[in-house]
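Revision sheet: structure tokens.
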Amino acid sequence: MNKIYLFVLLSLAMQTLWAQNTLQGKVTDVNTNDALIYVNVYFPELEKGTTTNEEGNFELTNIPNGNYKIVISFIGYETYSQTISFPNSENLNISLTPSAIEMEEIIISTPFHKLQSENVMKVERKDVKDMRSQGAVNLIDGISNIAGVNSVSTGMSIGKPVIRGLSSNRVLVYTQGVRLENQQYGDEHGLGINEAGIESVEVIKGPASLLYGSDALGGVLYLNPERFADENTSEGNIRATYFTNTQGYNSSAGFKSSESDFKYLFRGSLSEHSDYETPEYRVTNTRFREQDFKAGLGYQKNNFKTELRYNLNNAKLGLPEEIGIQNTDRTPLEPFQEITNHIFSSKSTLFFNNSSLDLIFGYTYNDRKEFEDHHHGEDDHEDEGEEHSEEEHDDDEHSEDEAPALHMKLKTFNYNVKYNLPKLGRFETIVGAQGMNQVNTNYGEEILIPNAVTNDFGILATSHIHFETVDIQIGARFDNRKIDINNSISRNFNSFNGALGIKTNLFEKITARLNLASGFRAPNLAELASDGTHEGTNRYEIGNIDLKNEQNIQIDFALEFKNEHVEVFANAFYNIVNDYIFLSPNGELIDDDPVFLYLQDDAHLYGGEFGFHFHPHPLDWLHVETSFETVTGQLSDNSYLPLIPANSLNNTVRIEFENNGFKKGYAFVTYSSTFNQNNVSAFETTTKGFNLLSAGIGGTVKLFENDLDISIAANNLTNESYINHLSRLKPDGILNIGRNISFGLNYTL
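Predicted:
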């Protein structure tokens, strides 16, 4: 069989005329015909780009034969997108149209790599740079500001993405083009990815099993890594941000360089934070320390390109239990997690005359250790808010030779092979196969989930069909998952899923999208075979080996009105999840911990996101943005699902300005309102609403002829006392973070 595959690949390769093409061009303003400098010119399929020079000219070399989309973008202008053919194209002169609307970017998480305006599926996208400018402490903090996205948090360091009310194994995270596997079933298991070296975040809200298989039932969080430098350029930068609330900092330094064929980059970062402060106290043991290193190597020659990426992330994360010692130390006390993630990825593409073959392989090694607070007992509890002395907590200090109570290693190999067929008339089609081999092994004194081996395999086909006024996307997929537990129990799960989407312009300025998709999720190891105390959640969990697939179907309807100065959007969804898996207490205690069982019942979720963006003429520097989001989740008996985010309303006024010596200036004020959450599950309590005021200012100045980006952001300016419904510290009445002011500097070398 392997010989057959090799023969097919070689046959395809022989059909291709190896060639190197060069594209030259010029970018100008459509009204004035003036040359535009520093315009981004990028081929997303080739991951190859440059910028225009002082005459507005650009040149890109080493382009293989074939049809490729070129994207030309510049702040203050409409993004230009066009498919061009090689070797027929050698010169390209483009005129851009001024626009106050933000420039568009290519969406990578969907299969055909189109601009959002061209996409059949609605995808949210946010630049990590913008998250930092808004004062986000870490990646998950910034993601939570995207409409329809929230996080289940344990302090500041641990957060899990929630997309329209679904989280944990129902939301799949992709980084470096491969799926992230890090025991994400646990409520107190964080993202495990540092924002340094991440360029942007894309969110698919709804079932994406067609594209990604099991665990994408609720959606996908797709993290786009930092791009390589433009061809024949080099760039380095040093960045640091200080946060007043935690008296902590995030720092990062990186360098990247590209030649015609080779390119490379590397980036290191360090973050340290003490316990966060509320208006009444510091929340003991929310301190954390995170080290991160990312590196990449790329090569492109003729009709072949490849890149290798590696990410090492080590984090020590305190697990808060009660309000105790009040200091600003940064070393976590017991209990705490020590987590090390190694992520290796390889992405290669073979380009043929009118088609291409993508080969993506990934290996993730997750080493999770949890150290318990051994001295913790009845005599050590004190009233909330009471300060503890340093001496009373000597026993919390961690001994270096102390063995972890819980120690698990998760090794995951995954592959993704996709063939982009030649375009046939109106059809663009992709076929592919994906799979995963995963081994979980226990090394600690406690075992929460057993040793097991998981194998996934799936095949898919999807097409984008272009008509004059309508775009249609269809697809189908079959998946199999096999789980072998302790070499004694074996379970098989199969699922067939499909998707259908339609995009059309109802009127000249109104775009409508209708998507219908099914998804599935096979039960994870914790749900099937847990039998022990989960220290991070303080409960005794018992799995159910007879659990079935979760299977869902969701309908999405999106309307968008856009002209030169106004954007209005409305997204609504209805999601039916059959055999929804959930934890429920049975009223018993084991080792003084409440017993929770995994049960199944049908569920449904519904809601949406609505908003507008106003930038009035002639005040194009003024932006007024409002968004509202809502979600409701219920079981078949109309009881409410747990961990459903409260409705929220966000209002932002932002101005943009430039003057002599100060470029890309901005200032913003945001007022966000989170409403009461009274629709709670049987073992949750209701949560009061709250209002938070934030503001920021920033811009770029020249220092020694290089750019220095300056940003100041203040969150919760009024220092309001509040508790978010999705905070895991809520049952103990522990407040969320108070006023936090950040000062950021980024110097480009």
